[in-house]
Amino acid sequence: MRLLSQQEPATPLEQLDSSLFPNTDVEVWVKRDDRIHPEVSGNKWRKLKYNIAALPPKAHVLTFGGAYSNHIRAVAAAGKHFGFETSGIIRGELIEPLNPVLEYAAAHGMTLLSVTREDYRNRHDSAWLETKRISIGASHLWPEGGSNSLAIKGCKEILREVDQPFDVVCVPVGTGGTLAGLIAGGGQDTSVLGVSVLKGGEFLNDDVRRLIAEAGEIELLRWSIALDYHFGGYAKSTAALRDWIDDFSMRTNIPLEPVYSGKLFYAVYDMIAKQKFAAGSRVLLLHTGGVY
Fold first, then answer.
1. CA–CA distance from 96 to each of 59, 72, 93, 103, 228 (Å)?
2. CATH code of the domain covering residue 252
3. Is 186 within the bounds of a domain?
4. Tens-digit pLDDT profile for residues 20-49
5. How far apart are CA 289 and CA 155, in angstroms?
6. Structurally, how many domains does the chain consist of?
7. Is 225 helix (H, G, I), strand (E, B) or coil?
8. Cys bridge to 63: 34, 142, 179, 279, which one at CB 3.0-4.6 A?
9. Residues 68 and 34 in one domain
10. Which of 146, 163, 197 is the last residue of a domain?
């Protein structure tokens, strides 16, 4: 499937006003990957673009996600835009009326199929996957979050677009694909800090290493994952977090949501308050998009 006639332009960098943060000795910038595509925004475009380009005509993609998955929404949008069929296996019951993410996916042609949370745990089992693929009639399987070797290829390009130095690059982490691509892509003499949006996300360290190895890549950058900013788990939040997001978005005109970007931006704000970054540090936040 032909996708890119030319390389898309680099997404912009924006410096945030120092008054937004409790310690003005730290310089904070944002890479606005949320502006990369009108429907398939942020890291979803990075992860999907080479997967889409590899599809043959009349492809049918089966993928997976939770009820508030930005990946599910993005795959549905891509299928509608580029002309391939999509099906999504959703963790848990499909409750009517559908939430905005699933409603959007269905409206863009995705067939939604629910499985129990227990059954969903089999999503890494090859026999279970093949049974589901055959029963649905799909030609291609894309993993949860879109994190595979072609996704790593797309995410490797992110820091190569950045033409100024940063001490730390920060990114939210769900399945680990974007973080793995940053680590494998290099392009900066920097360290990468992932912020887990999942409760109990210690396993993400192994998942990131596995993704890098499976893609045939190596670790080019130093990295770590902060585990204390999940606010209860995936797609969960608190009133305090939502209030902080609303205030920050109003003051900066940068849209945030409570699943990924809001947790990332709050984590960096809190780390600056706790002086986790050295004075004079230049910190880059990767805005990975998301609409919920």
1. 29, 17, 9, 10, 33
2. 3.40.50.1100
3. yes
4. 998 789 999 999 999 998 889 899 999 999
5. 14
6. 2
7. strand
8. 142
9. no
10. 146
